[in-house]
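Supplementary Methods. Inverse-folding protocol.

Structures were first reduced to a discrete structure-token string of length 288. This string, shown here, constituted the complete conditioning input.
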């Protein structure tokens, strides 16, 4: 599946003296600088009918033409996997991901992922890198994910994430009774000994998690959690770091904690709850 696109624009006098790559970024702002640069390198950009280099400066008044054949960006296969679509339009989709569904193919999970399901639902996503997936949640975490349907939407949403304007709120139940909400500001990186795990480490990437108490129980606390950054396993690592690990977390939760004197029903739930009690409940973004 491929698609030919053709764009034209005239360089205004206010852009005179600037480099071609800078001008392209202003005239064709729907596309990333990296993609525009690749089109220049491939000879798909003509200035008054001639190929120029990105560093060449323009005088103003030139006509720019771009003609590109958009090739498939995704080599995974579509699969008829049901999707719980919360919202959908021509620019994006919002998916309510169930527990157990991997978002993106990786070693050991080449098939049966949300990406495969998206390609079946919207075949045009083969033309968008990563099938439009701009953020992820863990396999055993449920909840909302936004998917960009076009290159423009992907660029806009990715920039919102980078500027920390993309809001993500989670609901979780942690071990222990917390007296108040707060913020965990602790860098996260690979665990120094167990490379498949993440940990709070001094040389990690900045990570900040805000949490507030939604409800207290005798031995647990229901929290609403907002991410300011989006590191791998961030909420799970930060909650374990402050000694309130998420209930059911098989990696960071530690040993099973059964409250003294709890009833049979709660005892049974805790013993059979084999995934982290974490749900991506709310997204906040500017529609592209």
């Amino acid at each position: 599946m491929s698609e030919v696109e053709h764009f034209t624009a005239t360089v205004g006098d206010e852009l005179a003296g600037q480099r071609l790559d800078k001008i392209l970024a202003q005239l064709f702002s729907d596309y990333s600088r990296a993609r525009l640069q690749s089109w220049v390198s491939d000879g798909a950009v003509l200035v008054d009918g001639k190929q120029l280099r990105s560093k060449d400066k323009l005088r103003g008044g030139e006509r720019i033409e771009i003609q590109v054949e958009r090739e498939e960006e995704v080599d995974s296969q579509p699969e008829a996997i049901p999707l719980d679509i919360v919202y959908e339009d021509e620019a994006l989709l919002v998916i309510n991901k169930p527990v157990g569904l991997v978002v993106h193919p990786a070693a050991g999970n080449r098939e049966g992922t949300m990406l495969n399901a998206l390609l079946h639902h919207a075949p045009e996503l083969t033309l968008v890198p990563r099938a439009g997936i701009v953020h992820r949640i863990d396999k055993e975490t449920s909840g909302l994910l936004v998917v960009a349907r076009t290159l423009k939407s992907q660029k806009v949403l990715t920039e919102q994430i980078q500027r920390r304007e993309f809001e993500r709120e989670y609901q979780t139940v942690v071990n222990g009774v917390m007296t108040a909400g707060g913020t965990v500001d602790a860098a996260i990186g690979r665990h120094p000994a167990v490379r498949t795990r993440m940990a709070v480490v001094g040389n990690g990437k900045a990570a900040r998690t805000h949490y507030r108490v939604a409800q207290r129980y005798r031995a647990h606390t229901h929290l609403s959690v907002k991410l300011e950054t989006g590191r791998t396993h961030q909420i799970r690592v930060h909650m374990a770091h402050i000694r309130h690990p998420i209930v059911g977390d098989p990696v960071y939760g530690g040993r099973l904690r059964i409250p003294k004197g709890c009833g049979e029903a709660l005892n049974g739930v805790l013993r059979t709850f084999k995934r982290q009690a974490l749900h991506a409940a709310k997204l906040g973004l500017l529609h592209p």
